[in-house]
Records
---
Amino acid sequence: MKANSFVSVGSWQEAYKLLKASPKNKIVGGGLWLKKGNAEVDTLIDLSRLNLNKIEDKGDYIEIGSMVTQRELEVSPLIKSFSGGIISKAVSQIMGPAFRNVATVGGSVYGKYGFSDLITVLLGFEVELQFYPSATLSLDEYVKKPGFHDGILTHIRIKKTERKAFFKKVAITALDYPIINVCITLGENYKIVVGSRPLVATTLDETMFYLNNGGTNFDEAANVAYNEVKVGDSIATKGEYRKELVKAYVKRGLEEVNK
């Protein structure tokens, strides 16, 4: 990626005005993928001066600023104490600490990356995204909606509803992109999420319908997941192998959250 200028903004108004000034102006998060793209950008807009690096207990929910790094999310006592620390455990498997010290939560979520371990585990909970100037979307709604929101992602909010949780990342090595991610959470109902398909993470609605309407046979649920999940081929592996992994880990995850 080539950028003609870089601006560290001092206010939301300045950031939004600059973003809307040109379709070639972009918000920058951790900036780790800039070298991977070949798009030309007029202005990169940096939000690091806007106090978005906090993780706070807001009573009914946990609020995470979009500029919080993945490492800060991983080691946060608040995140570690929530639902058995499953979010922290999932984030700890992303690349290495040097990567997580730079990558931002907002960048990973907003970018809808197909390989995002973070989106996969967050979809297992009730999560909403706050955009400047005035929009709120559920994470599930955002990932299913084509394209990107035209506002600025400011905060990620996780409803503080404790759920039993399972997360599995399958990769060739710890520093590789995942071949598949599976997250299962159980509270009043089940949430089943598959990521790195290699498409962006998604809930398995048919599988959840089976389980949330009295289905108790985990082998059958795994078969439903196998038939439902949409996957593709990649350099790392074939889609059919991904489906087999989903089948195996959906069953294993269901057994885990029901212990």
Note: DSSP finds eleven helices and twelve strands in the chain.
---
Amino acid sequence: MAKMWEGVTSGITDSLADDFNSSIGFDSRMYAEDIKGSMVHAEMLSNKGIIAQDEAEKIIEGLEGILSDIENGTLKIDYSCEDIHMFIEAELTGRLGELGKKLHTARSRNDQVALDLRLNMRKEIDEISDLLKEFIGIICDKAEENKGIIMPGYTHLQRAQPITFGHQIMAYAMMFLRDIERLADAKKRLNISPIGSCALAGTTYNTDRFFEAEKLGFEGPCLNSIDGVSDRDFVLEILFDISAIMMHLSRFSEEIILWSSWEFKFITLDDAYTTGSSIMPQKKNPDMAELVRGKTGRVYGDLMALLTTLKGIPLAYNKDMQEDKEGVFDAVDTVKMCIKIFIGMIKTLKTIPENMLKAAQKGFINATDLADYLVKKGESFRNAYKISGKIVADCMENGYILENYPLEKYKEKSRLFESDLYDAIDLTECVNKRISFGGTGIKSVENQISVVREKLK
């Protein structure tokens, strides 16, 4: 196929160089955005008298036909074309003849590709956000089911204090809410139109960039045409936001992997989200969670690759910037798949409350409550801490837990201990006593769920 830029050069390139230069293999996914932008551009050209109204109508009709034919499968994308922009323009020219060549008046591929990418990323942000909202809803459902199920809370992966499973997983709901907010914030900065910047310096035609921006749903046109074609900050910001989502999914994956192991056995994953071993028939592997954890590094790589690519590029457009798309498309596809997997995995997850409770009891995670009991009886916290530590050490040495440690032994450590201490260190009581805002008490978890569900609306 003849090159659209044939003129000062012969337009003949080495076949290997053609393949190396081509981007249609990955930018073809932006065909709808390219056509949408071209329709509005044709309308603007007509409004400003740059092309005739009937010409614009025929161009728009031709573009609508191309869009329909691609989507119904009657038109196959020609991957021998350099990029999706050239394919659509060539197809339009093939259908309309010389009239099709007028569409590219007062624009360049530089601002055209920047427009297409912004339109595509705006759509992807909405899709990722919708998936996150669905996922957070599933987390809230699971937290509601398990708001009173006691488990050990951990610091340094050591049993620390009693919490509920509902409280634990609502922490992830908070993370994903922040991810939605970050995406919304990125969308605000993304939503500026580059079209009309042309190659870098604008155009001598009397165009209406504000019309195109408004018709395409942007807040307005970019103020500087050089920045309009060379800015990829919005791609970096989206890649960072996706990396943060993947980091949160990876942390959740790590806990699921631990909780489903025989060493913890706090949860059981549905068979649909596990695999077996080729030689060990007893195995039930959390492969989906492990894959999510693994794919996080891949998405980080997409972010680092583009940061590195952009760091030494002079203004305005350079071909290096073609490298923005493969990475961000890969990250978008990866995060959407991972969220979808997590939605099903958490929805079907089953908790094993008796194992969580046993782990909580054996971990002496009510030791802080034991110290607090003494403080409320008049002991200083530092002394109470030391007394409680000695009791825990004695329990560990002699096979007790705090709940069945004899009262007479307690009294040997402090005269302040009375029989009511057993109520104070009961794990359910320990959880329900945590009445501070945002704590692990059942009413607090119910409030968290309510607030999150309200935000999702």
Note: The mean pLDDT is 94.
